[in-house]
Amino acid sequence: MPDSDTEDKQPKDDSAEKQVADSDASKEPLEFLEEEPANDEMAEALREKDQFKRLAQRAQADLVNYRRRIEGEQESLRLRNQRRIVLRFADVIDQLEVAMQAEGAADNNLGWLEGVAAIQKNFANALAAEGFERFECVGEMFDPRKHEALLSSPTVDYEPNTIVTELRPGYMHNGEVARPAQVQIAVALPSDDED
Question: What is the pLDDT of residues 149-185, one digit of tens each?
Fold first, then answer.
């Protein structure tokens, strides 16, 4: 009996293997046909994924650049406003200086004059603390980036284009001219040939 069982099992196993092999063979063409559209769909999905990824990266880069530009514009606006306000105080300093040098100022109450001088000095120190430095220009050559020529006077005491008088002081801030100095410059004497 054991022989018949083994004999019975072997043919059944062979037929089962044949059926599995036949079914595998019949599935192969179907799987092959199904894989091709799946591969196209997968490739299309990967292309779309890469496209969306590039789009997202570009949008992120645009956002970063926008933020930087806005921050730069805000800083520039802040500095312009600071400069505008500080230069208004520079005008006050100039007016106090004119008041102290006016005729008769020394004849008036000396305590009042000292008080005005102290106020003028405090304003000047406040400007210096904000990085605004007054620059001297008398005796220098005229530079249109630093000076604004309001008057000219013929003289032999100075070379032409030399600053003779400072009418309003100029201020520098971080190495840049915040306010040009208003000056009077020397010009050459007219020659006798021009008459």
Answer: 999 999 888 899 999 999 999 999 888 899 999 999 9
Asked if the structure places residue 98 within a domain, the reply is: no
Phi, psi dihedral angles at 171 (to 5 degrees): -130, 145
Which domain range does residue 190 map to?
133-195
d(CA 136, CA 183): 11
State which H helix or E strand residue 121 sits in: helix 110-129
Q: What does pTM read for this prediction?
A: 0.58
> Is residue 169 domain-resident?
yes
Name the CA dihedral angle for 34, 35, 39, 45, rounded to a multiple of 10 degrees. Answer: 50
Angstrom distance (rounded) from CA 109 to CA 81: 38
In 3D space, the residue among 126, 52, 58 whose CA is nearest the CA of residue 89 turns out to be 126
On whether residue 164 sits in a domain, the answer given is yes
3-class DSSP state of 108: coil
Helix (H) or strand (E) holding 62: helix 2-101
Structural domain includes residue 171:
yes
- The phi, psi pair for 8, rounded to 5°, reads -65, -35
Beta bridge partners of 179: 171
CATH number at residue 138: 2.30.22.10
DSSP 128-193: HHTTEEEE--TTSBP-TTTEEEEEEEE-SSS-TTBEEEEEE-EEEETTEEEEPEEEEEEEPPPPGG
